[in-house]
Here is the input.
Amino acid sequence: MRGKSAGIALCLCLGLLTAACGGGISSVLGDDKTLTVYSGREEELVGPLLAQFEEDEGIDLEVRYGDSAELAAQLLEEGDGSPADVFFSQDAGALGVVGDEGLLSPIENAILERVDHQFRSQEGLWVGTSGRARVAAYNTEALSEDDLPDSIEDFTDESWKGRIGFPPTNSSFQAFVAAMIDTRGEEATLAFLEGLQANEPELFEENSDVVRAVAAGTIDVGFVNHYYIYEVSAEEGDIPVANHFFTNGDPGALINAAGVGVLATTDQADAAETFVDYLTGDKGQRYFAEETFEYPVVRGLEPSSDLLPLDQIQSPDIDLSELGERLPRALDLLAQVGFL
Amino acid sequence: MGIAAPVVRAGRAASRARREASQSRSALVLGGLAVGALMLLPVAYLVVRALEADASSWDLILRGRTVWLALRSVGLAVTVTLAAAALGVPLAWLTVRTDLPGRRLWGVVAALPLVIPSYVGAFALLAALGPGGMLDAALQNTALAGSLPDITGWPGAWASLTLFTYPYVYLLVAAGIKGLDPAAEEAARSLGRSSWATFRSVTLPLLRPSIAAGCLLVALYTLHDFGAVSLMRFPAFTQAIYLQYRGAFDRAPAAILSLLLVAIALAVLAVEHSARGRARYYRSGTGSRRPLRRVALGRWKWAALAFCSALSVVAFVLPVGVIVYWVLRAVSEGEEVRITWAAGFGSIIVSSAGALVALLAALPVALLASRRPRRLATVVERLSYSGYALPGIVVALALVFFSINTVPLLYQSLPLVVIAYVILFLPQAVEPLRGSLLQVGPRLEEAARALGKSRLGAFRSVVAPLLAKGAGAGAALVFLTAMKELPATLLLRPTGFETLATRVWSGAAAGLYGKAAGPALLLLAICAVPLYLLARRVEVEEAEVENK
Here is the structure.
């Protein structure tokens, strides 16, 4: 028994030693030849693109994956001491917050001007890399495109009772509610949410679970981002689900953007600019269009043929980086109705 | 034999003892202060951030919804703790004190759910029993279609937290029962008490400290949990904190809410303190204790077996089955299931380092608390729980703040991850240590001293062997919990460093359950090893007792 305890103690000590050394080595290796990227976008989605970037440009990346909002909180805590060079965020709100704290440096005009004005910061502090549309994913065995309403607000109608679902804790859904407050006002948004609640919706944690439930026929319609049906069918094979797009500035037609910003404290401004240039350039944009089924944000590029072109959607006219300011109210309303 | 010489020697020994005593006391106090200072970091950070808050953020904590969420969380913690005690205490008694068939096997099996992270467990429960889950799908074309009760909300949160935390109660109480002296029970029996009355009036009160300790670990775990409650869509207090970070990007109200959570934890500690009582639990008589007598279950044997089997099916076989199913499905669809050895190695390194350092930090806390229950000891002990009551992201942000501003070299290094584990899980090392110390009477130490041992020598030969038992259990608990930790690891790890928990997360975040299931399975396999060692050690001990 003594031998065993000693063995365990030895293992623990070795662990400690390795941990200490590992820490030392990593801080020595964190020299200035690599570009450090904080990525709120998932490794499964953007990992191959970032690997391609390293190969094409000869710049080594150190990528730190996490949740966009948590990485934003981390960047705010790090302040001037941040080891990050670039922040690659899942949504514009997190970039807006980091920019407001003065932690981002302006992006070169030549790059900014490639991108449609709705997908970049008004102060030029960040630029969009890809867009995603809010849609109603519907079960094609239960419904046809004609059965679906023009406005998301019509889902408060009693005929949809027990047939709809969405993920209220998901940041994309919350951004949609914030956008609705922006365009319709608080009162109308509250009335809409109460109407949804009266229809006894099924609530989910993840967008992909909503799509799975639509595929299984548990619900007929789910409010998600447009690309989740591709993600789920990649894992589950063919599913009887299609996207219904809203148009004409309907609040349901919000198009949110993933984007990238350069930290003001970077000592690798050139490499960082190359990175931003790559994501908004031909290879990056084609990757988002073809591999992740998102909307390219550079003018003149067409999305994958399954998607309704952006100019036909007409997203409500909103400054994406200010959506963050509406979020606390959106959360309040969601809580008030009982969705959170 | 002359008398003068020993007296002189005793006098010298006494003065040497006083010197040593004051030295060891100041070493203990210094150690306690150092640990206290470390544990103060998250609270200090929260105060800094809370002071930046404007009036509207302060209004937040007075709002009806905040109070409502706090009450819900407390209610969940109370019901989960009661249920965990209702499962853990009988299990401990059955596997240690009865002739349950396969007793030793059940002893290991009953602890197994501890290897399942509660977020993975909750997820598996949903996938199996939830709306649109496997059972629901299987029933679709039968008469029972759609008849499943909805487990989301309180029932799901309650069930998953209970099932994956009751082993804390079970393990601590089982250790407590093994340390019992049968003399008190025998006295009660010989005075005519029935065996049930003896259990209630003698055994149960003697087990109070270990039951209280286990319940404390479960209650505080429930308070700080975010993964299981959010998966089950049970609005809890931690959700309010996460919404401030994730939705509103606002650290000041999040800090105020977190301080409120610490306050709730302190209230829980006060309750636990009074439940534990002021009694002492070591034997005061002479003689050594005899091995414990086993109770024959008789016809209750089948009920006991049914209870153990049913519990292990729901709490272990079901979640593991779901994970294995995902792996198999991914394999059959030609997906590449990568076995992430590097991540497994990373997990083992940081978790074992965390277990060792937590153990070292727990020693002064446990010694102070059980030997010198004075003001300093109380303050340090209470502080040691503050990290355990906080969600991982809060502790992680506190360490970001302090390391960036004081020792930038430490930032995003493995030692910082280890420090985070110590702050987050210290009580899991303290409780077993304190439990084993409580059963060592100070007289034993005094006797060793009287027999001429130095203070250190007495500690080494009397206290240390008994401490070792608690130390093994404490290190194993911290190791198991650290293996499953996610939010602090994500924020503090060196860039590019992976653990199994981060691999599970990156698969699940992309909605690819096949990708998440591989590392999850490896995580379970690795965690089973220290759990098995813990159970084996118990067996060896018992064999020794029986041979005497």
About this structure: The two ends of chain A are 52 Å apart (CA to CA).
